[in-house]
User: What shape does this take?
Amino acid sequence: MAKMLIIYHSEHHMNTKKLVEEASKGLDILCTSIDDFNESLLDGVTIVGLASGIFYGKHHKKLIEFVENFHDLLSNKQVYVIYTAGSNNQQLGSYLCNKLDYYNITTLGTFNCLGWDSYGPYKLIGGLYKNHPTQEDIEALRNNLVRFL
Ligand SMILES: Cc1cc2nc3c(=O)[nH]c(=O)nc-3n(C[C@H](O)[C@H](O)[C@H](O)COP(=O)(O)O)c2cc1C
Assistant: This one.
């Protein structure tokens, strides 16, 4: 049983998967794709990470719907919000954070970093921030996660 479970959805360039899986390596943290989530993964877990890329200004709808449908499962947990995005805008986690607040779920904070983004016209130039998340981003998240364990 891990102390922390990170539930992620990653689909554009697997930026978020890379970030959370590499940052958690060797720590008492289990990472699962939201598609593979089942309730038993929360046994013994006190902290839940929710992570995805940003799509049209918010976390992926799979994560938002997860909170809407399963907020009861999070009521006795503390939640850490994580995202990768094509910009450094610190407000992009707000929609998910507000949703968590609405259900009175405690949040520990937010971590964000850039991720390779080839959406729309950026595709023509191979995308922006191709080597992101970087090793520094992974280390920065890891240092934050360690504080919770
Ligand atoms: C359809 C689409 C919409 C996006 N919308 C935004 C956005 O509103 N703001 C932003 O900063 N990045 C946006 N991005 C960039 C992604 O958030 C970024 O590439 C992220 O790292 C993808 O994570 P993933 O590879 O884990 O899926 C968008 C990307 C796609 C494909």
In short: Strands lie at 4-9, 29-33, 47-55, 58-59, 78-85, 106-114. Residues 10-16, 53-57, 84-87, 92, 115-117, 119 surround flavin mononucleotide (CB under 6 Å). The chain has one domain: 4-148.
